[in-house]
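Worked example 2:
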Amino acid sequence: MVKSTNEGNITGFILLGFSDYPQLQTALFVVILILYLLTILGNTTIILISHLEPKLHTPMYFFLSHLSFLDLCFTSSVIPQLLVNLQDPMKTITYGGCMVQLYVSLALGSTECVLLAVMSYDRYVAICRPLHYALLIHPHLCMALTSLAWLSGVATTLVQSTLTLQLPLCGHHQVDHFICEVPVLIKLACVDTTFNEAELFVASILFLVVPISFILVSYGYITQAVLKIKSATGRKKVFGTCSSHVTAVIMFYGTIMFMYLQSAKSTYKDQGKFVSLFYTVVIPMLNPLIYTLRNKEVKEALRKVLRKILVIKFT
């Protein structure tokens, strides 16, 4: 049992996670561990190739390398503790560990929401204004947009996480989830949480509804531009370029919106856990496959880098 120094000062939490499904925990451990290793391998590969291959020194791959770095950090802030708790019958996490997980995961998740919108703008300019692409999407703008994404993520976690941690818990320390998240910690509060739920809803609008609206508008213009292309081959090529981003957006925003636009008092806890597991474990693993590993440019760059490594190793 996690002890409390007094009624309001909790020294740790119990992450119940998937305790209701003891028969699944060993299988979950194996599957999640494999997916985590694949996530590290795939996203690290994207980051290295984007930096080592000169042909990939473009805005698109600049943003993709940031997305891969985000996914690496996000999964690493959650999955190691999850793996430990799947094997540990106590399933504990220190108060400090929960704080770190809360601040870091929320910052990275919010950053990704903004970064996906930034990437849709990149695709809009590339397709709708190709002659002005180099002029509009220049390196300084790329740095500014990625900095905006990161700073917005840090700002929202400083507000949301701090407000959540100020709620009195009255000795409650059993978190019915596998991760310290704002909605599940709000459920532990022993006071009225209307303000916190309202703040959470506003933040959800700013980081979910606004970016997805921007993405929809961008792709509305892209669709109009594509329909004007007379060549069927040209249309197919453009749709192929955008399909990766659209797929990632649907998966990411769909699962996140399910979690954060429902009330913190929602009773659908089991569905919420598995949805969280999907966007925490599965999506970061799939992103390299969706975005780049099926891309001819990346495959060629990967073969080129591997050849260089082999040449250096055997000379």
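The longest strand covers residues 12-15. The two ends are 58 Å apart (CA to CA).
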